[in-house]
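Hi support team,

I'm opening this ticket because the web form for multi-chain structure prediction keeps timing out on my end. I have pasted the exact lines I submitted so you can reproduce it. The total is 614 residues across two entries, so I didn't expect it to be a heavy job. Is there a limit I'm missing, or should I split the entries? Thanks in advance, R.K.
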Amino acid sequence: MVYFLTALYYEAKEIIKHYKMKKVIEAKKFQIFKNDKYYLIITGTGGIKAAVGATYLLSNFGYNENDIFINIGICGANKEKAHIGEIFLCNKLINKYTKKSYYPDMLFSHSFREGSLESFLEIVDKDMIKNVKADIVDQEGAFLYEAVSIFLKPENIYIIKIVSDFLEADSVTPVLIENLMASNLPKVYEWIDKRLNIEDYKNDIMNKEENDMINILCKNMKLSSAMEYEFKKLSKQYKIRNGQILDLLIKYKDVKCNIKAEGKKVYGELKQKLMEL
Amino acid sequence: MESLSKNLWNYKFSHIYVEKDALNYDISHDIISRFKKSILIEIEHYKDVFCRKNQNFILQKKIPKLILAVKKDNFIYPGSKMCDDFGNDNFYYTSLVMNCIYDCEYCYLQGMYPSGNIVIFVNIEDTIEKVKQILKNKSIYLCVSYDTDLMAIENITGFLHKWIETANKYKNLKIEIRTKSADFEYIKDIQSLDNVILAWTLSPDKIIKEFEKNTPSLNKRLKSICDAIDKGWKVRICFDPILYVKDWEVLYKQCIEKTFEIIGKRKVYQVSSGVFRISKDYLKIMNKLREDSKILAYPFQCNNGVCSYNTKHINKMMNFIKNEVKKYVPLKDIYLQ
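Hello R.K., no limit was hit. The queue was backed up. Here is the completed structure from your submission:
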């Protein structure tokens, strides 16, 4: 699953349209949109709303630790450090107030510019430029990252910002935001598509046939819970080492023990075999 | 993850994280200048990157980042009970680099560290100073390449040159440099010393290919060993860890035969060997990281917090190794763990 978070509706509008998302009626506290693969939440401006919104989204919609989280939106920049419409993938996020910095894991290549983002609680205007340490500024990124990193892996959290102004908040209009998003998001979609081709999934080691056979043997050998747990663990290890296990287990298929002591003896013999190569 | 198209991975050391304090050291600038394409990110403390929660050690090992930091304490540690002191008193080790450029499936570092990225502590002089202080009172047996492979990154750090220079000045300092690399050439300009031991870890080629990713082949390691002995260095050969895998007897017999066939009449200082053994806590983490590992899929037995094969297997494997090695090396020079 991919989770998007934007502060403003104008930042979200194009994404909702692109992924053909529908509004989640049950979500009462925030506006949430979804399709079968993507969720998007609009939290409003500010770090606390973003952190709460992210937590609300992940906690209420059954996140998986391998899911991807993308905060996308506009940001301000120092005129000398960026140009309008430039897309940043942030590699360092600075909380203006705690001075703590956060570092998403940059495992995957991309065509965006990388840089640092400093997050403020208030709108940053030109007069504050001396206080800015990073390449770009916003009101959510660092706060949000701190919250999301409790749930997800650092290589799966992306803070993507599009420069909208040189610390002139008054110049930022809904139309400007919509235009910036519409013209720049195709590059982001393209990258997301590539990124999604990577799936960090693990197949189950034991298949149904093997699990069924193990359950039959447990029953036939009258194994205790502890022995059953050990048998399953040894069987899994044997399969990893040898690539298969049925050839061994099938030899015990017809063994039926009437009493536990008998089963213990048979299991002892099987256990020895499971411990060999 | 294997399905990932190659061009979506970043490259090794694509990012270098540097502590502000580390920028005061010339070596940091030397290292940075070697990686001109890398993105430099200034950090307060290496732990802000290295000790983040939920990191993916396995993925990070594929494309590690470099972290340059200043070591503030713990310059020298007492030797681990899982490692042989080879009869030396005052066994210590240092950890000036955390993590290794190689990616061995059985490596304890993946259980020990939260990250697969590589930390280089640039202030080696502080560690050497600490060692010098101890040397005033006693001799030391010091392993300098345990939690990393210093020879493999000598072209980046130059640390081996500094350690060997120190050993040259202090005869009561005995140093072990353990490696799997084939990069003896990085130190071939240095005069060999009696109190420095180069210890090569060797494995059968099949094991190298399957379980020791990014490491040089057995042949290449052996070439480095021969070059080192020819230059007068004391070389310890470590068949360690011996792994309980299919056909292990055939694999290790061939490996030992090949080793001594290539080394020929050259004098090997010592041979050490031990089966795979690991701290219980590290094994637990490794099992989570590598759920389908053939090496870790074994019903290990744990004694005093150390896990290894069962006694029957250990005895069988160690006896086998001893009998094979003693064909080439006197028993007194063979150390078994």
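A quick check on our side: The radius of gyration of chain B is 20 Å. Let us know if the file doesn't open in your viewer.
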